[in-house]
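User: Quick sanity check before I run a bigger batch. Here is a single chain. Can you write out its predicted 3D structure?
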Amino acid sequence: MKTKLIGALAIALPLAAMAAPENYTIDPTHSYAYFEVDHLGVSNQRGRFDRTSGKFVLDRVAKSGSVELNIESASVSTGDNLKGSRPRTLDDHLKTADFFNVAEFPRMAFKSTGVKFSGDNPAEIVGNLTLLGVAKPVTMKVERWVCKDNPMNKKPMCGGNASASLKRTDFGMKYAVPAIGDEIRLWFSVEGYKD
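Assistant: Done. Predicted structure follows.
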């Protein structure tokens, strides 16, 4: 009997290892994309996109994964949304064809092509960012990654922070370069619940 049990475990363990991929759906309440750009060589201006959705897959055994993010361009927010006597706010201007052209391109997307792990956690995510209809490779460095049960609702979750840099002119966003910087720094704060 003991031999049969050991034999069954020997067969089951590799099968369990093969079934390691875990699917997660991004929690839009706690997931955001942020950006920073040099403004006139005086200060760094920051903003974020208020609506992000998507999915990711983790396989800690195979040290692989994938990410798909969808970012609603029209949800751009810098905190300048009160027009007053001005013709438009900064948020309004960012939605025009000078910048994100949200009427023609309502969303940006990131789709991974590879994930590098450090130990059990993702450390680098390589993929393509599509902005203004142009797809270019972007590498995100994962700065923190944690998987655990949410202490309030007890559901399994994973999430963390990642960052990347890109040149906006590579995507056709040329307005006011170089007065407004070409290099954009991106940060992603993402949390997802296991499906």
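The two ends are 37 Å apart (CA to CA).

User: Great, the batch can go ahead then.
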